[in-house]
Amino acid sequence: MSGTYETYDRLIALLDGQGAAYRVLDHAPQGATELVSALRGNSLAQAAKCIVVMVKVGKKVTRYVLAVVPGDRRVDLAAVKGLLSGTYVSFASRDIAERLAGSVSGTVLPFSFDEKLELVVDPALLVHDELYFNAARLDRSLALSTKDYVRIAAPRTEAIAAAAD
């Protein structure tokens, strides 16, 4: 996807502009949370798993949520549906998710740069000093201060994680 490096550059410019504390971690290309966490050396609970969810509200309104949960959990679709008083919920199609996120699947950031994508983060991810995520690239991740993440991203915080299957 051509926008991937632009999304990465936009993220770095945002973090630098806001004085965020972060570290860049280069690694072998990997998008799966469990595998990339092993490469980075972080616990799964510190990994930000980012999933784009589609919620239908009635017949005419479709909303998209960037659901961010700890890497050792899964997104509770029913909880996301309930937050928006939705009538139907599913994972967004890959093409829509990648377009809204500005990066390929497996590299979606826990930041939204699209007003059509509402950011919702499970509070269990925010208990750690740092969180880890692929930085719009399969070969590069960031370890970001959680306090700085909350300050800059200003996510809606709701219980949207369920135990992993």
Keywords for this structure?
10 strands; alpha+beta; 165 residues; 5-stranded mixed beta sheet; single chain; globular
Assembly state here?
single chain
- Helix fraction bin: 25-40%
List unreliable stretches of 5+ residues: none
- Average the pLDDT over all residues and give the rounded result: 95
Report Rg.
Answer: 15 Å
Number of β-strand runs: 10
Ends distance: 31 Å
Return the structural class: alpha+beta
**Strand residues, percent:** 25-35%
Largest sheet: 5 strands, mixed
Indicate the overall shape.
Answer: globular
Order of helices and strands: HEHEEEHEHEEEHEE
Query: Given the structure, what is the number of helices?
Result: 5
Strand order of the main beta sheet, please?
Answer: 5-2-3-6-9
